[in-house]
Amino acid sequence: MSAIAGIISFEGAPADSTIVQRLGNAISPFGRDQLDSLDWKGGHFLRALLRTTPEDTFDCQPLVHEEANLLLLFDGRLDNREELGFQLGMSATNLRNLPDSALALYAVLRWGKEAPARFVGDFALACWQPSRRRLWLTRDAMGSRSLYWHLNGRQLAFSSSARSLLTLPSIKPAIDEARMHDHLCLLPQLGTESFFQGISRVEPGHVVEFVDGRQTSNFSHQDFEHIDTLRLARDEDYVDALDELMTRVTRAHLRSCTPISSQLSSGLDSSTVTAYAARALAARGERLTAYTAIPRPGYDGPVPIGRHADESALAGTLAARLSNIDHELVDVHGQNWLEHARELVGIMDVPHMNPCNSLWLSEINRRSADSASRVLLTGAAGNMTISYHGLPGFSQMIQKGHWLAWWREFQFWRTQGLWKTPIIHGVFPNLPATVLHALRLLRDKPKASLSDYSAISHSLKTRMESQGRQGRGFNTSVKNGKSARISHLQSMERGPYALHANTYGIERRDPTVDLRIVRFCLSVPENQYLRGGKTRWLLRRLIKDIVPPEVVRCRTRGLQTADWHEHLAASIPSLEEMLLALRSRNSVTSCININSLLDALHEWSNCDKNSAQTNARYRLRLMRGVANALFIARLGINQ
């Protein structure tokens, strides 16, 4: 893994050495092993390296190909090395010690801007061609690595870190209100807006080209909409195909120069990733350390219906089944979530989406690094791929007139006492909007208000015309599960969280969003995910002999940071003092309703800690509101 940055003058003027030094200092925390710098033909280029693969030992960047008059900076990892090597006519011997950056260079020399479409892995790259006065930037389709840019006249700067670009004298630090608005409204990050005015992001899966100081194109190098449906002879064939693919993909994610660790909850995704990794490592005679976050010892506080607070018992059954897993429990009791939130805003390019969970996520990063591991496996995005629930299948049965199939499924769900599920997901989506509205009124269940879970200020909603921007939301259509999943996958912005892990010396890898897994899961028919009264039918069949039955059959979901209210209660005195100070800062109050957060604090002692309303008001609204307020205040503007 690397962090990359550069400053280019389309007129060939040299870069200011002070600015270059600031950029280098800003990206160096993300690549602790080596910082390299090169001044070449109208540009200055920097790379900070974090070695995580054996081939990284030979990585020397920036890469220059004099004959082609081209410079390349590469950040990331290519997981289809053998396939690329074959397409490029390379022998296994030549490929063996070749760094991923050099492989990317050969691919670019062969295919130009079409090369990223052939890459599988987490990556971002910049390619400078001075004879054409052309720069193009790109990143992977799942948003696993970040890349930002700022164009000022005839000079362009780019970086893995948006905050590093704030060191440029041409940028006045200011929040992009449109992006902040959408974030506070829980809308997906679409388009090129970053959280900072004057700084744009390369969208996941896109190539952005600049020629002679002007942006000339911005196109997607991946197409998920036109993936053909996979038709196999037997239901078992889909399971066999996914098993072969998960085995191959997991092995690719185990390419590391250090021991491997994993983040293990009681859920299906992390259990699947951990099990496949442990089996592959066992074949190599290696061990796997799995980390499970738990509430404080002895916690017996409130837990919502359908959830369980301590995931260690279920996670432990998997560790007990696979003898090469070392299982470690991570308890962050006594750590201060507010102090940690303050630390995060100085590092991350986005406000942390879940400050409640950030403590244990960071603690797992730290523990993994302390164990000399630099690779941490996760399954964070599996619910859009391998563990997709398939519930829109009910709606598709009705749309296609397959009423008998729907009725059979209804009977399965009725015997479980869940007869409403096929109706809500099958019948309701196909009713006219007026009928749905009338039914909602009859049930006396009004739609949740934005103010129930967001601390957005009234003035920001007015300025941004909130009602009109709601169309930018996720495609949550239960009529078309494939389209809904594509909408979520394309709006993923995982890069800033990956960079944060890099500051610990950790690379987080998620096999569940490997491009091959994504394409396969989008091609699988809906009836392979929903069958016989079971959601996630494909994954349940895949892991029935790999993951303990207690995990596969569990009817409740783990509640991460179940003791969140204790962390919040311990911070209330300092939190109130901080909010009172923030209330005097116009930059904060123009976006965040600080008074509503103070009101919530004053009413904390009287609220029902086990209610959904309390969870929305405090865990979501208050704690996220504080994280966003701190993020804005960090810029120190309009005071």
Strand order of the largest sheet: 2-3-1-9-8-10
Count of DSSP-assigned helices = 27
Structural class: alpha/beta
Strand composition percent: 15-25%
Query: How big is the Rg?
Result: 25 Å
Helix content: 40-55%
User: Would you tell me the overall average pLDDT?
Assistant: 92
Could you tell me the number of beta strands? 19
Work out the oligomeric state of the chains in this entry.
single chain
| Biggest sheet record | 6 strands, antiparallel
Give the CA-based shape: globular
- Distance separating the two termini: 38 Å
Give an overview of the whole structure.
With 639 residues, the chain is an alpha/beta fold. The protein contains 27 helices and 19 strands. A 6-stranded antiparallel beta sheet has the order 2-3-1-9-8-10. Helix 12 packs across helix 14.
Q: Short description, anyone?
A:
The protein is α/β, with parallel strands linked by helices and 639 residues long.
Looking at this protein, list some descriptive labels.
19 strands, 16% strand, 639 residues, 6-stranded antiparallel beta sheet
